[in-house]
Amino acid sequence: MYRGKNWLHNGFFVTVSVLLFLAGCAQEHMTLQSVLDTPGHHASNGFQFLARGHVEDADREFQAALQLDNSFSRAHCGLGLIAGMRGDFPQAFQSMDLAKKYAKTGEDRATVSVGEMRLYSMQKGEGWLARVRSSFEDAVRSEADWPEAWYYLGAAYKQAYRFYGAEKAFNKVKDLHSRLAWQARRELRGVKKIIRAMPESSVGKSIAVKNVITRADTAALLVEELKLDKVYEDMVRNGNDLPSAAGVQRKTGLAAVPPDVKAHPLRPDIEIALQLNVNGLGCFPDGSFGPEQPETRAGYAMIMGDIMAIIRQDPTLKKRFIGKASPFSDIGNEDPFFNAVMLCTKETSIMEPGTGIFNPEGPVSGADAVLILRKLREELGIF
């Protein structure tokens, strides 16, 4: 009898404990849900999605924020940025006006000002850089040393080819030790390369700010920045012999323009580059050129190595490292680009390898492309 009462007592205790535990879990779930389902949390998610390029997800989050609070400033700001990314600038600035109207704090106002900076940079209308600077001043008046304001000022200066201004702005972000510091350091590395390279042509500057260059960009750099056709013409006038395959005459056009080049905005540069018959920048077996195909590090090395051998008038350069051991774990000495890679890394150091690797299939950034060209010009005495 005693054991039965004890069993009932213990059972009652367990039941009550379970109910209390479940009630606590439910309360915790409700508390967690209430914390997450707020305008601020949805807007924060939206900006994180935007930073990763997930525009549709960001749109959903900003809309969710406005469903909870239709006057939430940062959600309107985010939707304005999305409209700008989609090219709908009337809607973009309308949303930004609402964001400004509903801004309650200094951080809200600074966020809106930065949003305006980004829209002006996207739109590139008349006087766009002056407008960016004006909105920047508004941002730092609302919140002194606002990292986002300095970061997007640097991005605007970079897009306007004001590279020293961009360097100063990104340095400021780095010194503020904000969550944007790592991005600022990445941008700084690229800007410093561009400043060192000092691209002279407008085409060179426009390509220098690209994250990844294409084969069409490479052709344009050889013609507009390096002026390779003129370099070869000068060599011939000075009595130097060039391989018969290396064309040096400006022709009215190729006998057969690659079909994927005919409507390309860089067609004139691509045609001249093809006439020069640079190894690594020719047409593919199917007759196409692939102007929008990303340039690879191996391909760029082959181009630089070919130019080096021709201008130095030293055909042995094209075979100098054949049969030698490869210092790179991702390249074998049997690879067709091995000799060119060695010329660019060991013979001249115009390209920088990683630690023990070269990353042959990796992309080439605009900053790296123009800096490599600058190093090649210095190495070969082309001024």
What tags apply to this protein structure?
single chain, 383 residues, mainly alpha, Serine Threonine Protein Phosphatase 5, Tetratricopeptide repeat, 17 helices
Give a structural overview.
The chain is mostly helical and 383 residues long. The chain folds into two domains: 39-197, Alpha Horseshoe (Serine Threonine Protein Phosphatase 5, Tetratricopeptide repeat), CATH 1.25.40.10; 207-380, no CATH class. 63% of the residues lie in helices and 0% in strands. It has 17 helices and no strands. The protein is elongated, with a radius of gyration of 29 Å.
Write the layout of secondary structure elements.
Layout lengths: L1 H35 L2 H13 L3 H14 L4 H13 L3 H14 L3 H18 L4 H15 L4 H13 L3 H13 L5 H17 L4 H7 L6 H11 L2 H10 L29 H10 L20 H15 L26 H10 L18 H15 L3
Helix pairs in contact: 2-3, 2-4, 3-4, 4-5, 4-6, 5-6, 6-7, 6-8, 7-8, 8-9, 9-10, 10-17, 11-12, 11-17, 12-14, 15-16, 15-17
Tally of strands: 0
Q: Regions with pLDDT < 50 over 5+ consecutive residues?
A: 18-23, 28-33, 248-254
- The protein's oligomeric status is single chain
User: Taking Cα atoms only, what radius of gyration do you get, to the nearest Å?
Assistant: 29 Å
- Number of domains as seen in the coordinates: 2
Question: Structural class, from helix and strand content?
Answer: mainly alpha
Termini distance? 107 Å
Specify the number of helices.
17
Q: Helices and strands, in N-to-C order?
A: HHHHHHHHHHHHHHHHH
Strand content: under 5%
- Integer average pLDDT: 89
Overall spatial form: elongated
Task: Let me know the largest β-sheet.
Answer: none
Helix content: 55-70%
